[in-house]
């Protein structure tokens, strides 16, 4: 992604969010100086991706403090505003973790809060770089063929979804930098097309060969031998390795298991939630049914039809060949459980 474009940036008085609802056709910035606007931006997916909304949430604590000082809020009201930011999207644990971390500096005032939020953002970029290298090393060793690899990915996990570089797409970028990437199959990712709008845009910026495909094509692409591995991100990982990611991910994992190829999850350790025992305990966000009943504001389903629109699904840990974090790779399906190894 061009260096000047960042998903989340602090301007000195508020947040600048690259509006991901408008990409790839327009690159515009939403300027945020109040809590209501930030909560709306997170819910509308102006900013999205677990690490990116975590960074936005961290800065949101400072935003709430500054707004509270301008408008004469009590501490109680300011804390309530922070709680609204923390709850804006219930599945992605990074938002909660980052808000909670920054809130440890709340009593010290805005400067201390901003310093902690900046540290969260900086550490995410560092973690992404490390997991990109670990993931590329593991894939090349695991697949063991001296040729460029063909990788399938689902949803968007690049610089747009993080503080910079990317998680799963960071692994892809590392393979590309090493000259070991032949092609990326990017699932379009229904219903909001984060794959075709965002992942393809990032890949095009990097000059990485890629093909966009319908989500329903993924299993067939894998089973006919056109893919060497799938690499995806995560919004929450339970202690037993069950992984919540964008809806449609579990079908990719099942196809990889049947084809006998690696299914790699790339996520920072902040995405691992040891307090969530299994995927059954992960709350799944249900979004507005209009996202699947309409297209561009035009009704596509019959008037009497109802929509079922879960934003995420849960892939059982037994299907996760590897979980790559900034610390290395855990082979979850072989019994290396993140709740035990990453405490």
Shape: globular
Task: Give the termini separation.
Answer: 33 Å
Q: Domains counted in the coordinates: how many?
A: 2
How many extended strands?
Answer: 16
CATH class of the largest domain: Alpha Beta
Q: What is the rounded Rg?
A: 19 Å
Largest sheet, spatial ordering of strands: 6-5-4-7-10-15-16
Can you give the mean pLDDT?
A: 94
Tally of helical segments? 11
CATH level-4 homologous superfamily of the largest domain? Translation initiation factor eif-2b, domain 2
Largest sheet: 7 strands, mixed
CATH architecture of the largest domain: 3-Layer(aba) Sandwich
Please bin the fraction of helical residues: 25-40%
Instruction: Determine the structural class based on helices, strands and strand pairing.
Output: alpha/beta
Note poorly predicted spans.
Answer: none
What portion of residues belong to β-strands? 15-25%
Order of helices and strands: EEEHHHHHEHEHEHEEEHEEHEEEEEH
Q: Please name the CATH topology of the largest domain.
A: Rossmann fold
Task: Outline the structure in words.
With 343 residues, the protein is of the alpha/beta class. It folds into 2 domains: 8-123, translation initiation factor eif-2b, domain 1 (Four Helix Bundle (Hemerythrin (Met), subunit A)), CATH 1.20.120; 131-341, Rossmann fold (3-Layer(aba) Sandwich), CATH 3.40.50. Helices cover 40% and strands 17% of the residues. It has helices at 35-43, 50-71, 75-86, 93-103, 110-143, 168-177, 194-206, 218-223, 249-259, 290-293, 338-341; strands at 8-10, 15-18, 29-32, 149-153, 181-187, 210-213, 229-232, 236-238, 243-246, 263-266, 272-273, 294-295, 298-299, 312-315, 322-325, 328-330. A 7-stranded mixed beta sheet has the order 6-5-4-7-10-15-16. A hairpin with a 4-residue loop joins strand 8 (236-238) and strand 9 (243-246). The protein starts with 7 loop residues before the first strand and ends with a helix.
């Amino acid at each position: 992604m061009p260096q000047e474009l960042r998903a989340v940036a602090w301007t000195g008085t508020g947040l600048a969010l690259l509006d991901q609802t408008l990409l790839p056709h327009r690159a515009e910035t939403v300027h945020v100086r109040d809590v209501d606007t930030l909560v709306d931006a997170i819910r509308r997916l102006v900013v999205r991706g677990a690490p990116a909304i975590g960074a936005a949430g961290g800065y949101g604590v400072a935003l709430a403090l500054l707004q509270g000082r301008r408008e004469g809020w009590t501490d109680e009201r300011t804390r309530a505003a922070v709680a609204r930011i923390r709850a804006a999207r219930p599945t992605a644990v990074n938002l909660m973790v980052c808000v909670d971390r920054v809130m440890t500096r709340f009593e010290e005032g805005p400067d201390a809060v901003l310093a902690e939020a900046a540290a969260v953002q900086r550490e995410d970029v560092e973690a992404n770089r490390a997991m990109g290298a670990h993931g590329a090393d593991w894939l090349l060793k695991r697949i063991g063929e001296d040729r460029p690899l063909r990788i399938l990915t689902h949803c968007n996990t690049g610089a747009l979804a993080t503080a910079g570089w990317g998680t799963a797409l960071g692994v892809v970028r590392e393979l590309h930098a090493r000259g070991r990437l032949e092609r990326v199959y990017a699932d379009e990712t229904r219903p909001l097309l984060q794959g075709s709008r965002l992942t393809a845009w990032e890949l095009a910026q990097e000059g990485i060969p890629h093909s966009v495909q319908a989500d329903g094509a993924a299993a067939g692409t894998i089973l006919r031998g056109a893919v060497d591995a799938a690499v995806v991100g995560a919004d929450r990982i339970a202690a037993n390795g069950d992984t919540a990611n964008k809806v449609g991910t579990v079908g990719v994992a099942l196809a990889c298991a049947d084809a006998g190829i690696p299914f790699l999850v790339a996520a920072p350790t902040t995405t691992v939630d040891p307090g969530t025992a299994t995927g059954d305990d992960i709350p799944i966000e249900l979004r507005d049914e209009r996202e699947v009943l309409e297209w561009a504001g035009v009704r596509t389903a019959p008037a009497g039809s109802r929509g079922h629109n879960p934003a995420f699904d849960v892939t059982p840990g037994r299907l996760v060949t590897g979980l790559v974090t900034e610390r290395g790779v855990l082979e979850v399906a072989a019994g290396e459980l993140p709740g035990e190894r990453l405490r």
